[in-house]
Amino acid sequence: MRFLLPILLAAGCSSGEDSTPGKGEYSDDAGTPTVESCGYTPAPDLDPAGDVVEVDLTASALAWDPGTGVPLDEGVAYDGSVPGPLIEANAGDTIVAHFHNDLDEPLTIHWHGIRLDSDMDGGMQMMYPVDPGASFDYTFTVPDAGFYWYHPHLDGAKLIERGLYGRMIVHAPDEVTADCDLPLALDDILLDEDTLQVAPPDTDMMQLMGRLGNVLLANGKENRRIGLTAGQTVLLRLVNPSNARFWDVYVEGQQMQVVGTDDGWLPEPYPVDDLEITPGERYMVTFTATGAPGDEVRLMNKRFQLHAADADMIETDPLGDGDNPVLTFVFGDGSVEGTPWVQPAVAPLPWSGPTETLGHHWVLDEDMMGGTVTVDGAAWPGVPLVEVAANVDTTFEVENKSEMHHPWHIHGNTFQVVAIDGVAPTVPQGWKDTFDIPPYKTVTLVSDLSNPGDWMYHCHILEHAEGGMMGEMVVE
Ligand code: C2O
Ligand code: CU
Q1: Helices and strands per DSSP (H, E), number in the chain
Q2: 442 alpha carbon to ligand 2 midpoint, in Å?
Q3: 456 with 280: CB under 8 angstroms?
Q4: I need a surface site. Which of 2, 146, 190, 207 has the fewest CB within 10 A?
């Protein structure tokens, strides 16, 4: 067993996510890679009031190092780190985000998954683009515990790839603090030598599939090493900000339990061997760290098993076949009695099947020859408006007539998946805002439409959204 450095497990968590070495990280002088402590550092809260979280978010150019040692000249970031500042709040808090645009193109910030007022959603292509050099204060309340993220909604396929995204944790009142609470943004980037490929993919197939990367990043870096102690209760909060990659993750030798989804905790956990996470989606999973001092276990990404009809398309995955390591957990000395995980209380979800009111039936399709994707036979902004009544339990159907998966994202309201091709899901369901629509399948959703407003909906494969698989829904 290799010599193991002592691991900093400071009380008050730290590190694990900064793109620059900082507190909580160290390395010895013999070249042993840095082992980070397991945890996170939230953005400083500029408002002393207990129920207001105030942060500065400036978008600017930043040559960041994805862990290769070569900073990416094409990089951009919120407030000097990739991912951007981690916003930490409690359910019911007000967020005040002072956004300043130091880039040379108009920007918005979309607060993915938050049930906020639609004029703060940053999602409408026509609403409040913040001009270069200008500022805008986003102010909104976060009603629901969950793991969220934020990103631009103009030119997202390039800007998110270049590093413009951040995470947000909203705690439930009765949430226990895990021994290791690790929020991870799992992104892929495409490097040619050491140059980030941000130009549109140059083949029709890549345009149609969305760009897949050849380097896997956790919180903006490849090959992170994170310290664990045997017995610890580990909570991973996972978000997939990739343009198009469907992640499918497991941790070697650890039994994961899924405890939460996009917009909250589950009524009860369920075990998984590996977990698929589509672009835009989030999951919260726990495991009890199982290993001996010196052991190293890796967070791995499996090749996503696409529909059989897609076999040829995934030949273009630059990662090729097999499972790929994302980061390594390094076991320190000794063991601890872990803090038992207690599932936060959640009201059971109200529906076990479709409701009487059908709000809309979306049809997703593609034109392979033309290299385009469509919703309801059209491309944004030509997609017909969907209009539904607020505060009515409403069913939506999303029918995928194409041979690709489409991670469907709806702004402003949260949903429950009640059926896939008419069959109820077999695992406990939670509130969702992003869900995979597999090829040739129809997914049935229900929402209480509790949040009126003008909302975007779209595929979260960013090339698909920008290629037209996007529309607008008015809830009033
Ligand atoms: Cu995360 Cu409209 O998107
Ligand atoms: Cu899509």
Answers
A1: 3, 31
A2: 14
A3: no
A4: 2
Residue 264 backbone class (left: φ over 0; alpha: ψ -120 to 50; beta: rest): left
Whether the Cβ atoms of residue 262 and residue 445 lie closer than 8 Å to each other: no
Q: Which residue has a Cα nearest atom 1 of ligand 1?
A: 112
Q: Tell me if 437 sits within 8 A of 364, measured CB to CB.
A: yes
Rg of the chain over CA atoms, in angstroms? 21
Nearest CA to ligand 1 atom 3: 112
Enumerate the β-bridge partners of residue 446: 395, 416
CA of 211 to the centre of ligand 1 (A): 17
Q: Looking at domain 52-173, does it have CATH number 2.60.40.420? A: yes
Q: How many residues does the chain have?
A: 476
What's the CATH number of domain 181-335, 2.60.40.420, 3.30.420.10, 3.40.1410.10, 1.20.1180.10? 2.60.40.420
Q: How confident is the model over 391-444, as pLDDT tens digits? A: 999 999 999 999 889 999 999 999 999 999 999 999 999 999 999 999 999 999
- Cα–ligand 2 centroid distance for 64 (angstroms): 29
Are the CB atoms for 380 and 467 separated by under 8 Å? no
CATH 2.60.40.420-classified regions of the chain: 52-173, 181-335, 357-475
Residue 356 token pair: 């009487």
Residue nearest to atom 2 of ligand 1 (CA): 123
Q: What is the pLDDT of residue 126?
A: 56
159 and 187 in contact (C-beta within 8 Å)?
no
- Picking from 134, 70, 82, 85, the residue whose alpha carbon sits closest to that of residue 108 is 134
The H-or-E segment that residue 440 falls in is none
Q: Which CATH architecture has domain 357-475?
A: Sandwich (2.60)
The encoded tokens of residue 46 equal 């500029």
Give which of 287, 209, 213 is closest to 253, Cα–Cα.
Answer: 287
Cα separation, 196 vs 71, in Å, equals 10
Each residue's pLDDT tens digit, 325-365: 999 999 999 999 999 999 999 988 899 999 999 999 999 99
Percent of the chain with pLDDT over 70: 87
The two structure tokens encoding residue 132 = 């270069």
Tell me the two tokens of residue 401. 């007539």
Residue 381, preceding peptide bond in cis (omega within 30° of 0): yes
